[in-house]
Specification:
Blueprint (H helix, E strand, L loop, with lengths): L2 E21 L2 E17 L4 E6 L16 H15 L7 H9 L5 H23 L3 H9 L6 E10 L3 H13 L4 E5 L4 H14 L4 E5 L1 H5 L7 H13 L4 E3 L7 H7 L5 E4 L6 H8 L6 E2 L8 H12 L5 E2 L7 H13 L6 E4 L19 H5 L6 E3 L2 E3 L14 H4 L8 E5 L1
Parallel strand pairs: 4-5, 4-11, 5-6, 6-7, 7-8, 8-9, 9-10
Antiparallel strand pairs: 1-2, 2-3, 2-14, 4-13, 12-13
Helix pairs in contact: 2-3, 3-11, 4-12, 5-6, 6-8, 10-11
Length: 412
């Protein structure tokens, strides 16, 4: 296919009024959520889409004032220059062209990720097949199109608030409930205890990134170990990112304390995912087609996990477009079964009298015209060609980009 146009559109979904969440030693302000929509067009008039833009943990400089418009500009600039006018025989031809630019390595990875997904969308549309069928042919697997999901929700609440939210998630039938602790060691332990009593079928996952963003005198190594061991005693399913992403020795120290560890979303490359898995310290490896060189890049990590005591579970903390993109991977990849579902306020796919959402993120839903099919905590993967959903291009005008970071951490 000959590429004629590559576009990157920065979008911002404001959080109004601004929300402030207190954690132990500081506050977190939630200002907006940013998204980059990448659009790739061929000479035949075919259009492929992809969600893009770096995650907050993978691209921490965004906390320091940069906005995702910076990445959109790079897509429209250096990335477009590398691809427009080129004829691609394979998806990986685009990887080679982007890798040959002078962009920083991390930006190359983000750009390759988006273009890879968009080209698979184009390929599926051209063949009249959903992406998961294309991937099944590559993996030599049969598709699984009803996917269990864990709900990614709780953020810096009192222990009773986490428990109330978890009960709603349990009612909705999700496989798991993931929350963000950080209200202090005693509060974190109490939350684990309350959650163990609150849910009946739903597993509990702890996303502990706040621990290493605070000073060591709050969550030092001994304190982290005590909380992790307590999580194991209360049958927590996993503890995610309990140490800084590159602290492999820290992962090793916490492994074997009664609960499996999860990590990988902050790794800068597919090779980094495999390096983390090779520590034998994590039971769950969290790659992401949006950040680890697309479907192509995630394949190496998935293959590494096969037959080993580590399960590939995609990270996903963005829009429904990102959800669908990762869902096609889960539907096809061998020994991959679980998907992350971020829960935002007023989610039209969830039917419950109480709202378990973290904060408003209307663009998450509005970016596609369809409502994703969620029933009893499971997602039915779209079966239309390519991604199988219709991107609503009106969001480009309805959600103009605003400058600055999407969130701020303020430390006492």
């Amino acid at each position: 296919m000959r590429i004629t146009d590559v576009g990157g559109y920065a979008l911002s979904s404001p959080i109004e009024p601004v929300q402030t969440r207190s954690f132990y030693g500081g506050r977190r302000r939630l200002l907006k959520r940013d998204v980059v929509l990448v659009v790739v067009e061929t000479a035949a008039g075919e259009i492929g889409f992809a969600p893009a833009g770096a995650s907050s943990s993978a691209m921490r400089e965004y906390f320091e004032g940069d906005s995702q418009a910076t990445f959109a500009d790079l897509v429209e600039g250096e990335v477009a220059d590398a691809l427009e006018g080129e004829t691609l025989d394979e998806v990986t031809d685009a990887h080679d062209l982007i890798d040959a630019t002078d962009l920083p390595e991390r930006v190359k990875t983000e750009a390759v990720s988006a273009v890879d997904v968009a080209l698979y969308d184009l390929k599926g549309k051209r063949q009249g097949a959903p992406i998961h069928e294309l991937l099944c042919a590559e993996y030599d697997t049969e598709p699984t199109t009803e996917l269990p999901m864990y709900a990614s929700a709780g953020m810096y609440m009192e222990p009773a608030g986490y428990a109330d939210q978890a009960r709603i998630i349990d009612d909705l039938g999700f496989f798991g409930y993931k929350y963000r602790p950080g209200i202090g060691p005693d509060g974190d332990v109490e939350t684990i205890d309350r959650l163990a009593e609150a849910v009946t079928e739903t597993e509990v996952m702890v996303d502990a990134h706040t621990w290493w963003k605070l000073d060591d005198d709050v969550y030092d190594a001994a304190t982290r170990a005590e909380i992790v061991e307590h999580a194991g005693d209360r049958d927590v399913y996993w503890v995610e990112e309990p140490v800084e992403p590159d602290d492999y020795d820290g992962y090793r120290d916490l492994a074997g304390r009664g609960v499996k560890l999860a990590g990988g979303e902050s790794e800068e490359s597919p090779a980094g995912l495999i390096e983390l898995a090779e520590t034998d310290a994590v039971g769950f490896l969290q790659g992401d087609v949006r950040h680890h060189r697309g479907y192509t890049g995630c394949a190496a990590a998935i293959e590494h996990c096969r037959g080993r005591d580590v399960e590939f579970v995609p990270h996903n903390f963005g829009t429904w477009l990102g959800l669908v993109a990762n869902a096609h991977l889960v539907a096809a990849a061998p020994e991959v079964r679980l998907l992350e579902y971020p829960v935002f306020e007023d989610d039209p796919a969830l039917d419950h009298p109480e709202d378990p959402g973290m904060y408003p993120f209307e663009l998450a839903f509005d970016i596609i015209e369809e409502t994703v099919d969620v029933d009893d905590g499971q997602l039915t993967v779209p079966d239309g060609p390519g991604l199988g959903v219709t991107v609503d291009m009106d969001v480009i005008e309805e959600y103009p980009p605003t400058e600055g970071a999407w969130t701020e951490f303020i430390y006492d």
